TrEMBL record:
Extent of Basic and acidic residues compositional bias: 320-329
Gene3D superfamilies reported in the protein's UniProt record: TSP type-3 repeat
Keyword Disulfide bond: no
Alphabetic keyword roster: Calcium, Membrane, Signal, Transmembrane, Transmembrane helix
Residue ranges crossing the lipid bilayer per the database entry: 352-374
Name assigned to this protein: Thrombospondin type 3 repeat-containing domain protein
Length: 386
């Protein structure tokens, strides 16, 4: 069995398994990954959206009911194009593109017969790009045993379809035609031919710097498994543990999968990270419990997660929220910082006279002992002699 035979696209399912994992509720949408393999195969998904965060995606295996390891790869790709010819595009005023000329598949082609065998025939193409590209080479692919066109003219088109010739009529000696480097979104090519043409691909080679940056997700697909790609998370700071990914970036036999239409995730629930009874999208302090949702300055951020006195300590944990006290001193340990404690709770601070009482008692004891000593000096001396 060849590699190509080992993979085939499956019909797209409509609903995910009801077997759940708590992390599945983080994601608002999911995509089915329509792939089936008979051997372990690295699958690559074009994510379309540019995202560098792995927390934005999760690959779920419906068979093992587990999250699968994956990597994101950033690489350049050509800007998408549409190709119209004057057979399918009546005077280029209306019509539809010929997908076969821009599908990057040399196995598909379009035939252009001779409309007049007595004189050279003309064939015009318009090539539209999603954004301006810079190019100095026009490339086309013919089917086998098809003779090259006789001549070519290459033009640049402005937004209002004004034509500027970049290469005047020239003989075609290869399937790569060079011309002065030009930046444009719209191009026009005119072939002159005296033999029937069968063309597979038509494009302008994009110079470095004008290619699109794109992100692709790779994971190892196993036989007899179905996969879902979960997207659009409500929590972007949650890491989902997975097993070892293997050398996905170095894989050579990669099966490419287009991103399917997203579906609403029936398992999705808005999270309440701090457990205060308010879901995150309605909680004015997502990470700090504040069931009263107090917001004295009405700025949309709860008082519990602000720092009114700008001492670097959030109000919820600041023992003096209105007085800067970065070191959080609290000598009496009553929960109120020394900078703002209205009444110290130490006994000697509440009973200010207590230290003086102690001093007085101690002084009285000393005086009493001194008096006793002075009154009975002889008796003490006698005991020593005896």
């Amino acid at each position: 069995m060849t590699y190509e035979e080992s993979v085939r696209i499956l019909p797209v399912s409509t609903t995910p398994s009801q077997q759940t994992h708590p992390a599945l509720s983080y994601f608002q949408t999911y995509h089915y990954i329509p792939i089936d393999v008979s051997i372990p195969t690295v699958a690559e998904i074009d994510l379309i959206a540019n995202s560098t965060s792995e927390n934005q995606w999760a690959v779920w295996d419906e068979k093992t009911l587990s999250f699968q390891p994956f990597i994101l790869i950033n690489k350049e790709r050509e800007v998408d194009r549409l190709v119209y010819d004057d057979y399918t595009y009546d005077n280029f005023a209306n019509g539809y593109p010929d997908a076969k000329l821009a599908d990057n598949n040399v196995e598909t082609s379009t035939d252009y017969s001779l409309t007049n065998t007595a004189i050279p025939n003309h064939l015009e193409f318009k090539v539209f790009y999603n954004k301006p590209i810079t190019s100095n080479t026009f490339s086309f692919v013919l089917d086998e045993y098809v003779q090259l066109p006789d001549s070519i003219v290459i033009s640049q088109l402005s937004e209002n379809q004004e034509e500027t010739i970049l290469l005047a009529q020239s003989a075609v000696t290869s399937n790569q035609i060079t011309f002065p480097a030009t930046t444009s979104k719209q191009w026009k090519v005119t072939f002159t031919y005296t033999q029937p043409l069968r063309i597979s691909e038509v494009k302008f080679v994009q110079n470095a710097g004008t290619l699109d940056n794109a992100y692709f997700l790779r994971f190892l697909a196993q036989p007899n498994s179905e996969y879902l790609l979960y997207t659009n998370p409500s929590l972007t700071n949650k890491l989902i543990p997975t097993s070892e990914p293997g050398n996905l970036s170095g894989a050579k036999n990669v099966y490419r999968v287009s991103l399917t239409t997203p579906n609403e995730n029936p398992l999705f629930q808005y999270p309440d990270q701090d457990g205060d009874g308010y879901v995150d999208n309605r909680d004015n302090c997502i990470n700090v419990p504040n069931d009263k949702q107090e917001d004295i300055n009405s700025n949309g951020t709860g008082d519990a997660c602000e720092d009114f006195d700008v001492d670097g300590i959030m109000n919820s944990t600041d023992n003096c929220p209105d007085h800067p006290n970065r070191l959080q001193q609290d000598e009496d340990g009553d929960g109120y910082g020394d900078h703002c404690d209205p009444e110290e709770s130490r006994l000697t601070e509440r009973l200010w006279w207590l230290p003086w009482l102690g001093i007085g008692i101690g002084f009285a004891i000393v005086i009493t002992l001194l008096v006793i000593t002075v009154k009975h000096p002889t008796s003490r001396t006698s005991r020593k002699l005896n």
